[in-house]
Amino acid sequence: MKVILKADVENLGESGQVVDVKPGYARNYLLPQGYAYEASEANLRRIEAEQARAEEVAKRDYLEARRRASQLDKASLTFLARAGEGDDAKLFGSVTSSDIAERLNSEGGLDFELDRRLVQLDDPIKALGAYQVPIRLHADVTVEVDVRVDRDEA
């Protein structure tokens, strides 16, 4: 029996694939669980339309991410923070991904709202210095922002 997979099924195939399975497996597991539907002519046309629509959405998302990356390309941030004595002084506190996203949203002149989860900062910045912080806007689009942490003399 031929079925079209709605979702990835381990050891069987990926979403959108037409696979041949035993009738009992399709009738008792795949169809009731919603993992597949019958491979009729109408359903084959439907899956082709869904795939074309998904490709169009993916292309649009990629182009939007590239447009947003061009806005962030020349971005540079400076944070003033209290720190201990010495050149490699540790901060009294830290600069987090939330701080970076908040500053970019308020001062960056962006026409979109940058989510803090897009800022790929492994650990908060806890020392003075200059850093390259990656911002992942899409699976294929990452841009680096210059972040500088200076001593607050106040």
Quick overview:
35% of the residues lie in helices and 30% in strands.
Would you tell me the overall average pLDDT? 91
- Report the radius of gyration as a whole number of Å: 25 Å
Reported CATH architecture of the largest domain: Roll
Supply the CATH superfamily name of the largest domain: Ribosomal protein L9, C-terminal domain
CATH topology of the largest domain: Ribosomal Protein L9, domain 2
Order of helices and strands: EEHEHEEHEEE
How much of the polypeptide forms β-strand, as a percent range?
A: 25-35%
What is the domain tally? 2
Overall SS class: alpha+beta
Low-confidence segments, given as residue ranges, are none
For the report, how would you describe the main beta sheet? 3 strands, antiparallel
Percent helix, as a range, is 25-40%
**β-strand number:** 8
How do the strands of the widest beta sheet line up side by side?
A: 2-1-3
Task: State the separation between the terminal residues, measured CA to CA.
Answer: 75 Å
